[in-house]
Specification:
Layout: H1 5-34, E1 40-48, E2 51-58, E3 63-65, E4 73-75, E5 78-89, E6 92-104, E7 110-112, H2 126-138, H3 141-148, H4 152-169, E8 177-186, E9 190-197, E10 202-208, H5 213-224, E11 234-237, H6 241-250, E12 255-258, H7 260-279, H8 289-293, H9 301-312, H10 318-332, H11 338-353, H12 358-369, H13 371-375, H14 377-380, H15 385-400, H16 406-417
Parallel strand pairs: 2-6, 8-11, 11-12
Antiparallel strand pairs: 1-2, 3-4, 5-6, 6-7, 8-9, 9-10
Helix pairs in contact: 4-16, 5-6, 7-10, 7-12, 10-11, 11-12, 15-16
Length: 433
């Protein structure tokens, strides 16, 4: 069958209109899906090499306002092509190719007018950045990079941008109670010190090292972000001489509460030294370390049976005496008021300091040297339990990733435990990340 010339023209027009309608419909779908608004519009959509490419342009004659400094509208001076990685189209990578205008202000300076979906990092959309950051909270960064086909450098740069900006936006005014504790970055003696708002349960500052200088660094950050060192009334920390010195010098109105868990840790070390010395003459004590260090309610069935055996055999063990000293110290914290608390602590000190167990005598002397900070707990009721919890989250992330360098470790610590307001930077992220 041979078509006449007029029939060919009619067929071509029909085919052309059909394609235009289909193309227009597809563009409308992507316009709605991407949230594209005037003067931006989707010019073309193509899929090739398992990659979706969406070409975006702006309407001719559009006016642009440099909202940072001016209210005057300007026409485009010239244009520049920019490409943004967006959320995947099914399993295929998606890229937005955008013709963006540049305007020339009255002062002669040229400024590029980025589309509203442009992210903080050049080459990503806001939604894609939010997606990557959320993944990084639950997966090692290297795994996220492999999953998303991204370089480690770009993802770390993205995290640094968001964490640094969110920290600059932090308002530390009115905060008067903090806890501080060191944590290891790597094997050896590489440490950082975490400063935590004990009420918000959030890391607000991280300093390198664990010296007195860490407290001065914290105070500098506090005052840069609307805080006031004179308003800081309470600090919880361990008995580190460096921390004590730093707090006394940099935070003159802060009263130190010595963390009871750190005190118990030292007392437990004394109990274990007594047991180790006794093992030499009493082989029955081999493998019983946690029997003497754990609370009775936390003992396993095997440990309970072993303890009952030792009691039944009526061994005159010094380890039991040291354990009773530890248990008695723990019970002191149940005192109903300061007067009782002080009285019981004094009784404990006189008992332990005059005993024949040298490791326990040393723990009693440690308590005496830090007397006021231990009593302070009865007034403040604060401790480093929150820090220990946050620290465990950070260390678990490090182990899962098989280690982070110090800079990256600090970035992840803020991201995981800083409760940062990322919503101010990216509307697709929460106010308390």
């Amino acid at each position: 069958m041979v078509l006449l010339k007029t029939e060919w023209v009619t067929l071509l027009k029909y085919t052309h209109n059909f394609i235009l309608k289909k193309t227009s419909k597809m563009q409308n779908i992507f316009t709605q899906a991407l949230g594209i608004n005037s003067p931006w519009f989707i010019k073309n959509v193509e899929f090739n090499n398992k990659q979706l490419n969406i070409h975006i342009d702006f309407k001719k004659g559009s006016k642009w306002i440099n909202s940072d400094k001016h209210t005057k509208a300007y026409s485009a001076y010239d244009t520049k092509m920019k490409t943004y990685r967006h959320m995947n189209f099914f399993e295929h990578e998606c890229y937005l190719h955008v013709r963006v205008p540049r305007i020339k202000n009255d002062d002669g300076k040229v400024r590029i007018m980025l589309p509203p979906f442009a992210g903080e990092l050049n080459g990503f959309t806001l939604l894609f950045e939010a997606f990557v950051i959320k993944f990084c909270k639950y997966m090692p960064v290297h795994n996220v990079c492999q999953l998303m086909n991204l370089s480690d450098y770009k993802v770390w740069k993205l995290l640094d941008i968001y964490v640094d900006e969110a920290r600059l936006n932090q308002d530390l005014s009115g905060i008067d109670t903090f806890g501080l504790d060191e944590t290891s970055v790597a094997k050896g003696h590489d440490y950082i010190t975490l400063f935590v708002d004990l009420y918000k349960k959030a890391v607000v500052h991280i300093s390198d090292g664990k010296s007195a200088k860490t407290v001065h660094d914290f105070v500098a950050t506090l005052e840069q972000q609307n805080g006031n060192k004179e308003q800081v009334k309470a600090i919880s920390c361990d008995m580190s001489p460096a921390f004590i010195k730093g707090v006394c010098k940099a935070l003159p109105n802060a009263r130190i509460t010595f963390d009871k868990f750190h005190i118990l840790k030292i007392i437990n070390a004394g109990v274990d030294k007594v047991r180790k010395a006794e093992v030499k003459d009493n082989p029955i004590l081999k493998g019983t370390r946690y029997l003497f260090l754990k609370n009775a309610q936390n003992l396993t069935k095997k440990q309970q049976d072993k303890k009952a055996e030792l009691v039944l055999e009526n061994y005159n063990l010094k380890s039991f005496e040291a354990m009773r000293m530890r248990e008695t110290f723990q019970q002191i914290y149940q005192a109903p008021d300061m007067q009782t608390f002080r009285h019981l602590l004094q009784k404990w000190y006189h008992w332990v300091s005059q005993c024949s167990l040298l490791p326990m005598v040393k723990t009693a002397n440690m308590v005496k040297r830090h007397w006021q900070g231990i009593l302070e707990w009865k007034l403040s009721s604060i401790n480093n339990g929150i820090l220990e919890g946050l620290n465990s989250v950070i260390q678990a992330a490090k182990r899962k990733a098989r280690g982070y360098g110090k800079k990256h470790f600090k970035t992840m610590a803020y991201l995981l435990s800083g409760k940062l307001d990322l919503h101010r930077i990216n509307g697709f992220l929460p106010t308390c990340f």
